[in-house]
Amino acid sequence: MSLLVVGLSHRSAPVSVLERAALTTDAQVKLLQDTVAAEPAAEAAVLATCNRIELYADVDKFHAGVAELSTLLAQHSGVGLEELTPYLYVHYEDRAVHHLFSVACGLDSMVVGEGQILGQIKDSLARAQELHSAGRLLNDLFQQALRVGKRAHSETGIDRAGQSLVTFGLEQLARGGDVQQWARGKKALVIGAGSMSSLAAATLARAGVAEVVVANRTFDRAERLAQILMEGDDTDVAARAVPMESVPAELTRADVAVSCTGATGLVLTAGSVAEAIEGRTPAPSAVPGEDAPGGGPAAGPGAQRGGPSGTGLGSEDGCPLDLSAVQGTAGFSVLGEAAVAGMAAADLEQHAAWVDNGTAGGDRRTAGAPARPAQTGTLDPAADTDAITALAATAATVGRIPERRRPEPVEEPQRPEPVLFLLDLAMPRDIDAAVHRLGGVRLVDIESLAEASAGAPMAADVDQVRRIVSDEVAAFGAALRAAHITPTVVALRTMAADVVAGEIARLDGRLPGLDDKHRAEITQTVRRVVDKLLHAPTVRVKQLAAEPGGAGYADALRTLFDLDPETVAAVSRAEESTTQRDRGPA
């Protein structure tokens, strides 16, 4: 059997895909159950966080395992396999071990070095143990990953590079300024009472906010979190719990709100946020030049941006695309260059040709510019030849093909200062992305955190952590290979002991008058001879098996001594049963 991991993360997939592929707790349980029920897999564990979804399994066939795990991920995430496949990555055997150890150390996190991932790995192992989907391999792997992560944080300065996603998010809200100075005296609303929300509440309390209001669907959990905040020795924050129904009212008096729930739909819409800030800023409805939200098109993800003539983006006469419909597609954004997200390349070419060439819908030439031939579906060979010649000459002169000429940038009016700061740490998102367009609001979500962290510098200690990971991967691989041959060695020694017992019994039959003293001496002598003969080969075969490519020595040993495969398997099952019984919770 061999370790295989199939997954996707913020490094391989856009946030829009991660958001759609996010697994609920129930979906994770069903995925584990279906994975271990599948033919190629014997063990399984799921690591699902806000920026990664990974399925680990012990498989007996690589290609069949990849196909099965990819299919199961697609089925349970609800994203089609063809759409999901380009974003999936696969790691096998030592590479899979290296990947998990790197994840545990925070090297693969959105915020390098963050320590929250250790708790998430621990939860992942606990869930697999509870469902009995983790056997010896995954138990050992995840336990060792936790130890490697702790070692990296204790032996290096990776903590100087890393911070929690919550802290990083608050820094982004403060635009890189001092979080404590920014947070001092503010009223905070925390939506959710899980691990991430609890961390956010505690971080805000330590930063110096005046009040923390906790809202959760289960009111008891909200009350418990508020009580913990009130009893903390390192803060004097006022804290109280409210039901989820009170969120709109609490939002009207909050300065900062953090949301991280397990909801499958939006917790805060653009309209509800617009209502919450009404009257708190001179221009709360929208950025100047955009339609007003909270009842108008800007209140939702399909909102239209006004064009030069004041009409909606999708209402210009003659445009071959229904852009208002395109805006409603997943991943579409009206911000800057992202306005083309979600549009197929063919659609963009079609629209660009319409804009540049002025097809039906009027002549869009600037005054004084020469007219272009209408796009009738036929080409003018002479015009094409002249254009190609001119283009080649330009490319030869400047060394590149000139870019399409773009309009002069229009200076946008300055946005009003935020009166409400929102941090969305949920996946899928809790807060409508259209909130980005509201004046007087600053929203930081997983997508903006990913962009901000892409250029963040890493500490010099990262190299030391990488060396730790490499050493630990080698040690884990050696131990795994050595453990693989142990059942064979035990079976060999068991067979030798049976041979000794049989020969002593035969001696008793031939020398019935042998006294106990001499019989014991003969028995001990025979056993010493057998032990000495087996000692060097068994020690050496364990050493060889621990080296890369050493797995074949177990097969050679079984063949040379004609060991019964079922005996070896029985020893392996007995050892695993003992390990499972002795192993405590993660």
Short key terms for the protein model shown above:
586 residues, alpha/beta, 6-stranded parallel beta sheet, 4-stranded antiparallel beta sheet, 10 strands, 50% helix, elongated, disordered C terminus
Number of H- or I-type helical stretches: 22
Q: Quick one: how many beta strands?
A: 10
Broad structural category: alpha/beta
Distance between the termini: 23 Å
Mean pLDDT: 77
Strand content: 5-15%
Q: Percent of residues in helical segments? A: 40-55%
Uncertain stretches of 5 or more adjacent residues: 283-349, 358-379, 400-406, 582-586
Shape: elongated
SSE layout and pairing:
Blueprint: E1 2-9, H1 15-21, H2 25-37, E2 41-49, E3 52-59, H3 62-77, H4 81-84, E4 89-92, H5 94-104, H6 116-130, H7 136-155, H8 158-161, H9 165-173, H10 179-183, E5 187-191, H11 195-207, E6 211-216, H12 219-231, E7 238-243, H13 247-251, E8 256-259, H14 270-276, H15 323-327, H16 345-357, H17 381-398, E9 420-424, E10 441-444, H18 446-454, H19 461-510, H20 516-545, H21 552-560, H22 565-582
Parallel strand pairs: 5-6, 5-8, 6-7, 8-9, 9-10
Antiparallel strand pairs: 1-3, 1-4, 2-3
Helix pairs in contact: 2-3, 5-7, 5-19, 6-7, 7-19, 19-20, 19-21, 19-22
